[in-house]
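Review form for a predicted model. The reviewer records the input and the model, then writes brief findings.
Reviewer: anonymous (R2)
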Amino acid sequence: MPAEPADGAIAAPAEKAVETRGLEPVPDGERGGRVRELVPTWVAANISVLLLTMGAGLVIFNKLNIWQVLVVAVAAPVLSYGMVGLISLAGKRGGAPGMALSRAVFGQRGNLFPGALIWVARWGWETINAVSGAYAVLTVLDLLFGVKSNTALIVVTLLFFVGCTFVVSGLGINALRVCSKWSTYLFGGFSVLVLGYLVLTTDWSAVLDKPAGSTAMMIAGIGTIAAGGISWVPSGPDFTRYLPRTASSRGVVGATIGGAGVVVLPMVLMGAVMAVGTPDLATAQDPVSFIGELLPTWIAVPYLLVALVGMLLINSMSMYSAGFTAQTLGIKVPRAWAVSVNAVISLVFGFLLMVVATSFFGSFISFLTLLAVAFSAWIGVFGVDMLRRETYDGPALLDATPSSAYWYRGGFAWQAMTAWGAALVVGTLFTEVDWFSGPLASTWIGRNGLGWVAGILTSGLLYAVLPRTAAADAPAPAPERETAGSLSN
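Model under review:
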C-alpha cells in the first residue's frame, strides 16, 4: 500500500517521460495528481492570439462597446469552463478519459456516433490552431528577417508546428503539465507587458465613447467566445483522471474556471481595445500579423514566440484527447500513435485554409458556431447521466463485446441515442453561419446565437424523462470523500 503524503494526495509511482496508459482507468494507487495542476492546464488551453481577433470581432461585427465586451469576457468562460469543470468530475470518479466514460452512457456501439462527430470536430479545432501557429511563425520571420510568406514557406511552417504538436501530445500528460506550467508564467508576463503598452498608447476617449450594441449581439457574443470552452467539455475527464477520488469537486470546477478566465478576460478586452484603432483587425486574412503592426518589434516578437508555444500546447492537448477518442472508435494503436491521424488531417486542412480560403475570420466563426452545437448534444446527455451515476465499471468500459455491462441492447443505449440525436437536430434548426441557415434561425433563440443552449437543454431534459438505462451492477469503489473547496488539493 503506498504511503499517503501529508497533504492527502495519494503517492504515484515514478513518473515516466512517455505516458503509456490508454483507455484503461487509472488505479487509485497511481492517482498522484493535484487540483492546483488544473490551473496551468486550462491557462495553456487558452493561450492563443485568436482571442484577440475574437475580441475585435465583438466590436467590429457585434457592434459592442467596451463595457458589453467586459460582460461577454466574464460570462463566456464562467459558462463554458464551468461545464468543463463539472464534467471533469467524471474523470476522478472513473479514472478514464471522457470518451471512454461515454461508453457507459451511450453503449459500446452507440458511443461510436457521438465519438465520431467529436473526433471530426477536433480536426477543425486543430486545423484552426495549426494555421494560427504557422501564421505566428511567418510573422516572426517577417519582423526579424523580412522574409515574406509564400506557398513553400506555408508548408514548412505548418510541418514545423504540427510536428512539434505531435511530439508533445505523444509524450502525454506529464509533458503537457510541464509545458503548461512554464508557458503560463511566460505568457502571463508578456501579456502584462502588452497590456501596459496598450494602456499608455490607446486613445481611451474613442474606446469609452463607443455606443452600445444590442443585447442580442451581446448574448450572441457570449456564445461565440464560449464555443472554444465548450469544445473542451468532453476532454475535461482526460485531465482529471489522475486525481484522487477524494479531491475537492469544488476545487476542480474553480481551478478550471479560474485558469481559463485569467486568460480569456484580458485577451478579449485587449482585442476589443485594439479594434477601436484598427477596424480591419477582425477581417484580416491573416489573424496574427496585426500584432507586428500594432506593437513595437521588441514586444511583438517575444510575445508571438510565447503565444506560439501556447498555441502548440492547445493543439497538443486537443490531439492528446483525440488519441483517446480514436481508440474508442476502434483504432487499435497505442495512444501516442493514435494522435498521428489528427496530425496529418490538420496539415491537409491547414494548407487549404491558408492558401485557398478567402476569409479566415468568417471560416473560424462558422466553425465555432457549429462546433458548439455538435458538442452541446453530448454535454446534456452525459451531464444528466453523471448526476445520476455514482461510479463507473472499469472492466466494462474496456469490454466492447456483448458481455459488457455497457452493451445494453445490441450495443446501444437507445435513451441516450434518442436524446443526442434530437438535440443535434434542434440545435441545428436554430443555427446560422455563413453558408447555412436553419429554418428557426430567425427566431429569438436563433438571433441570439443560442442554438447550443437549445441543444444542451433538449438532450438533457429528454434524457432525464426517458426510462433509465439498465446495466449490470458495477463494483462499488471506495467511498468518495469530498475535501474542502480550496485549490490546495
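Findings: Residues 1-15, 472-489 have pLDDT under 50 and may be disordered.
Further findings: The first strand starts at residue 432 and ends at 433.
Recommendation: see findings above.
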